[in-house]
Design brief:
Elements lengths: L1 H34 L1 H15 L16 H21 L5 H30 L6 H12 L8 H6 L1
């Protein structure tokens, strides 16, 4: 009986520590994003462009491909892609992220959607920035994301 209880306590301890590590990773990412000068400049540019005439879509054109504006837009989009993938792999905590930055993710997706649809059409690939789109959907639809490699992650 004692080994069964000990195993249960050990499993509980591992699961608890993993949950704490996910929340810490999420907090660390959010904190770094708030002080990283490149991210701050990119967010400022993103918002300025999104509120301008035509929004972000004109920056998907070929002649803007290497512009500083498109680089700023892509930096923001790539950050949201990273967050979404990290959540799916259990590296970051969805509930914590949703509470702290969920509204921001939805607003940024609403601004970025025309840009993303334009580059998808241009590239002929509907998968570009699909993780960010999914993240905004999970938050706005109030349902949790699917987990990848769930069984494997339980052990490691």
């Amino acid at each position: 009986m004692v080994p069964i209880i000990a195993a249960g306590v050990a499993i509980w301890g591992v699961q608890t520590q993993r949950a704490i590590a996910r929340r810490k990773a999420t907090l660390d990412h959010l904190a770094v994003d708030n002080v990283d000068t490149d991210m701050i400049r990119a967010r400022t540019t993103f918002i300025k462009l999104a509120l301008g005439p035509g929004g972000l879509a004109p920056y998907a054109d070929n002649d803007k491909e290497h512009s500083k504006e498109q680089q700023a837009i892509r930096l923001i989009l790539n950050d949201f892609e990273l967050v979404s993938t990290a959540i799916q792999f259990g590296i970051m905590d969805f509930e914590f992220y949703k509470q702290q930055a969920g509204g921001t993710a939805i607003r940024y997706w609403e601004c970025a959607a025309p840009f993303v649809h334009a580059i998808r059409q241009k590239a002929g690939r509907n998968t570009l920035y699909c993780e960010f789109e999914a993240l905004a959907g999970w938050i706005s639809d109030d349902h949790k994301p699917k987990k990848r490699n769930r069984l494997w992650r339980k052990f490691f």
